[in-house]
Amino acid sequence: MRLPPSVPIFLLLAMPLVLPLGAHAGYVFDLGARIAILGIAALSLNFLLGAGGLVSFGHAAYLAIGAYGVAILDANAIHNAAVVVPVVLAASLVFSLPTGAVALRTRGVNFIMITLAFSQMVYFAAGSLADYGGDDGYTLTARTTWFHAKPLATPYGFYATCVALLLGCYLLCRAMVASRFGRALRAIRQDRQRVQGLGINPFSIQLTAIAIGGMMAALAGALLANAAEFASPAYAAWQRSGDLLIMVILGGAGSVHGAILGAAAVVLAEEALGSVTEHWRILYGPLLVLAVIFFRGGLAGIGRPKG
Amino acid sequence: MTLLVIQALNGVQLGLLLFLIAAGLTLVFGVMDFINLAHGVQYMLGAYLAVAAASVTGSFFLGVILAVLVAGGVGLVLEWAVFRHLYGRDHLDQVLATFGIILFLNEAVRVIWGSAPLQLAMPAVLSGSFPIMPGLHYPIYRVALIVVGLLVAAGLAAVIQGTRTGMRIRAGASNPLMIASLGVDIGRLFRQVFGVGAMLAGFAGALAAPLLSVEPGMGDNLLILAFVVIVIGGIGSIRGAFVAAILVGLVDTLGRGLVTDAAGLLLHGTAAARVGPALASMLIYLVMAAVLAVRPAGLFPAVPA
């Protein structure tokens, strides 16, 4: 029997939680948390892109919405996740539903560009929040809590929370892709008219997907703000949307676990190449090009029989 | 009033620079169905090459000519080494590979010329300003830029509308499969379009060099603006790119002045000072979202939707 590829991935992610790490603990947890958080964001984009064929070039907008949700509540001395998380999710819906409805009027590259336009609006809007640091960003006074417990206060707890949330999001994505909703979403990507003919409304299915993907990414944004104890407009910068796309494409759009592989590959490549030279991008860029030319189907496609 | 005229002229000038970049982008996209994110670094390369060539030859004009030629050459090398392997591949693969090239070239420029911004001195003939209206002086260089931009646009339109190659390009933008099966060497057509696009972007960079600081990453934001332009204009359409480029140039430049004033009328001072600049930066994206919401394929799509 072959194990599903996600099992070794999560075993690997869980290892730092049980192994004695000694002096490296802080570094490993920090790096691991970054992989897990970006993994959640990449999973959510992969759900839109891989299952729905909806290439969003503005997914980083949700990271900023999540981060600023935490920041604005922080400024009002609210840190309880029981308030923060619902507010963040609701804020992402307030953004995703109207912008998604407009964006879904377009197809192909125009969809890519209109999602970019909306995320640029978030970027500039975040920069105008003078009460929350404006362009300079906002430094949190404390991390998010759970009533009186502070699971995010220690590196161990923070990492464990991130991995648990990643696992939850992964299972949710898998379940959604396999569900009736997910099948309808994939069918729309292949043949929109036929789906319509079957009596399914493609618009509402796609908009639902955008809303769910947005909530997941906003959650990642809230974690990101907690990790850095900082929120800034840069979270919504188009380069970050590009980074998320790279993770998804590199990992292999279409397989759910590919997004986690992509996030890990990008974070680790930055870390490894960055320790070789400060001009690490001069190596990273050609690596991306080679990866595209030679690894069709992304990292998740390696070792898979050619179809 | 004079301020408005100056800003309108600046807007047209930004629009023409955008057009030079967007023209190549929209043709490469329309004809080859290829998303080239690396088009913005071609612009940056043009600026750097102009600085380098001008300091070697001692002449601004020679520098610009050399920069354009070398930028075109680099474009063709990239086409040969990377891009031709990606035609017909998924758009996402193209996005990823050309993003890799952006990272590489931005960093390569930083390694060669350093991170500090460079300056290119304006040629003596074109520095200074002259009166275009009573009480209104406008820099000669900017006027020259507008004239050159309009000439290039007219030349490009003449080539696209009036020559055999232009006809093939238009045909390629509306149905590439058909012209390939009619016996046109599509690989050669692609190389021509690509080389010209790279040269135009390099030209825009070289022309902008005396006005802006030349620094790594300077092409990234222009790339996004150029994409806004081609999407508003309709992909594959030179006419659309021209109209949209001028529109974006004017909206962005005039918006920065007017929106802050308008916000001042509606809101109190401090609120207006905060909302105004953010709204002004958002304006072109609002325009784009509005255009796409009403006309999802842009203003002048090459392939009618």
Low-confidence stretches of chain B: none
Number of structurally distinct domains of chain B: 1
Can you count the beta strands of chain B? 2
Q: Biggest interface in this structure?
A: A-B, 44 and 46 residues
CATH class of chain B: Mainly Alpha
Q: What coarse outline of chain B follows from CA principal-axis ratios? A: globular
| Widest beta sheet: strand line-up of chain B | 1-2
Instruction: Please state the average pLDDT score of chain A.
Output: 88
Determine the number of helices of chain A (DSSP H or I, runs of at least 4 residues). Answer: 12
Oligomer: heterodimer
Distance between the termini of chain A: 21 Å
Query: Architecture of chain A, according to CATH?
Result: Orthogonal Bundle
Query: How does the major sheet of chain A shape up?
Result: 2 strands, antiparallel
Number of contiguous helices of chain B:
11
Rg value of chain A: 19 Å
Mean of pLDDT of chain B = 86
The CATH class label of chain A is Mainly Alpha
Order of helices and strands of chain B: HHHHEEHHHHHHH
Helix content of chain B: over 70%
What does this structure look like?
The complex is a heterodimer of chains A (307) and B (305). The radius of gyration of chain A is 19 Å and the shape is globular. Chain A has helices at residues 6-18, 25-51, 60-75, 81-103, 108-127, 155-178, 180-190, 192-197, 202-228, 238-251, 258-276, 281-294; strands spanning 138-139, 230-231. The relative contact order of chain A is 0.19. The longest helix of chain A has 27 residues, at 25-51. Chain A has 12 helices and 2 strands. Chain A is 70% helix and 1% strand. Chain A has one domain (6-301): ABC transporter involved in vitamin B12 uptake, BtuC, CATH 1.10.3470. The mean pLDDT of chain A is 88. By secondary structure, chain A is mainly α. In chain A, strands 1-2 form a two-stranded antiparallel ribbon. In chain B, a hairpin with a 2-residue loop joins strand 1 and strand 2 (136-139). Chain B has a single domain, classed as ABC transporter involved in vitamin B12 uptake, BtuC (Orthogonal Bundle). The termini of chain B are far apart. In chain B, helix 2 (39-57) runs parallel beside helix 4 (91-113) and helix 9 packs across helix 11 (269-294). With 305 residues, chain B is an all-alpha fold. A two-stranded antiparallel ribbon of chain B has the order 1-2. Chain A binds chain B through residues 49, 55, 102, 105-110, 113-114, 116-118, 120-121, 124-125, 127-128, 130, 134, 238-239, 242, 245-246, 249-250, 253, 279-282, 284-289, 291-293, 296, and chain B through 29, 35, 82, 85-86, 89, 91-93, 95-97, 99-108, 110-111, 220, 224, 227-228, 231, 235, 274-275, 277-279, 281-282, 285-286, 288-289, 292-293, 296-298.
